[in-house]
């Protein structure tokens, strides 16, 4: 990694060279707080490529550590590390060392966000999409399970308790859990019946409402186009809230945004409400519902 990868490109980690990559990553020393602070300010003020490179290389080991947590979902570590690296690069681009915390403290959120988005995107080749509940369940299920187990070690956590802990309904929880736990099955897979029927032959032929699907896709496309068209007109704080609060799969808390702006969480809430009103007006004018 002599040069920082372009923002829109993913650094490819080939499987046959991944062991060498791990060895190289582990050989890079972790920067001291003072060293990192100096490099971070250089990068922040001048976008010096060498400073940025050193910051990235010294934090790649943390990406590997985080990526390993997601291999239990059946994904290869090189793929997860590749996405995590993109999160690290995104974090570096946004990092402000004047806030006083270290890069990895800020970057861990983006690293997880990129990896989680990749896992949810790739979970099914059918691309059924992910709901708010599925994303929440994916990121919080293990934590909720551990918490309940500590409180009631004598019995395994029930789905009812887990749903309550995640603040979702039982039906939403069951549906999201089924989606996450279900992998793709080949339609040609035999059912081991006497007539050798395939799995696909047992499924009912329900034709989806093509018109409704087209309307939904068209609406999503128009929303994206509208947001792109007005992005440059938004104030810096509005852009930040749009990216980190309204469009994020794992929204930043009001308190964290307040620290970023140097204002109270109530002030952030007011700014967000104004932004929502502004977007609502734009969508109304362009008849996007």
The helix content, as a percent range, equals 55-70%
Structural class: mainly alpha
Q: What oligomeric state best describes the polypeptide chains here?
A: single chain
Compute the number of strand runs. Answer: 0
What does this structure look like?
The chain has 289 residues and is mostly helical. The chain has 3 domains: 15-122, Up-down Bundle (Four Helix Bundle (Hemerythrin (Met), subunit A)), CATH 1.20.120; 132-202, Orthogonal Bundle (Arc Repressor Mutant, subunit A), CATH 1.10.10; 210-285, Orthogonal Bundle (Arc Repressor Mutant, subunit A). The chain is 63% helix and 0% strand. It has 12 helices and no strands. Helix 4 packs across helix 5 and helix 7 (159-165) packs across helix 8 (170-181). It is globular, with a radius of gyration of 23 Å. The termini are far apart.
Relevant terms:
12 helices, Arc Repressor Mutant, subunit A, 289 residues, 0% strand, single chain, mainly alpha, 63% helix, 3 domains
């Amino acid at each position: 990694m002599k040069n920082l990868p372009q923002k829109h490109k993913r650094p490819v980690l080939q499987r046959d060279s991944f062991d060498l990559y791990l060895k190289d990553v582990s050989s890079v020393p972790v920067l001291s707080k003072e060293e990192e602070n100096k490099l971070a300010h250089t990068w922040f003020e001048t976008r010096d490529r060498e400073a940025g490179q050193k910051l990235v290389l010294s934090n790649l080991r943390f990406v590997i550590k985080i990526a390993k947590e997601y291999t239990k979902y059946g994904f290869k570590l090189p793929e997860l590390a590749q996405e995590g690296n993109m999160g690290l690069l995104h974090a570096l681009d946004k990092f402000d060392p004047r806030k006083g915390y270290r890069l990895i403290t800020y970057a861990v959120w983006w690293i997880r966000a990129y990896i989680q988005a990749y896992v949810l995107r790739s979970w099914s080749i059918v691309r059924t999409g992910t709901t708010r509940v599925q994303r929440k369940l994916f990121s919080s299920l293990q934590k909720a399970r551990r918490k309940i187990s500590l409180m009631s070690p004598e019995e395994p956590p029930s789905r009812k308790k887990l749903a309550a802990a995640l603040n979702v309904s039982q039906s939403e929880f069951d549906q999201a859990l089924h989606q996450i736990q279900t992998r793709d099955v080949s339609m040609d897979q035999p059912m081991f019946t006497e007539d050798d029927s395939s799995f696909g032959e047992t499924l009912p032929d329900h034709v989806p409402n093509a018109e409704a699907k087209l309307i939904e896709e068209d609406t999503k496309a128009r929303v994206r186009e509208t947001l792109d068209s007005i992005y440059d007109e938004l104030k810096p704080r509005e852009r930040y809230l749009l990216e980190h609060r309204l469009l994020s799969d794992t929204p930043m808390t009001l308190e964290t945004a307040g620290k970023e702006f140097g204002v109270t969480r109530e002030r952030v809430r007011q700014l967000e409400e104004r932004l929502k009103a502004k977007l609502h007006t734009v969508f109304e004018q362009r008849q996007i519902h």
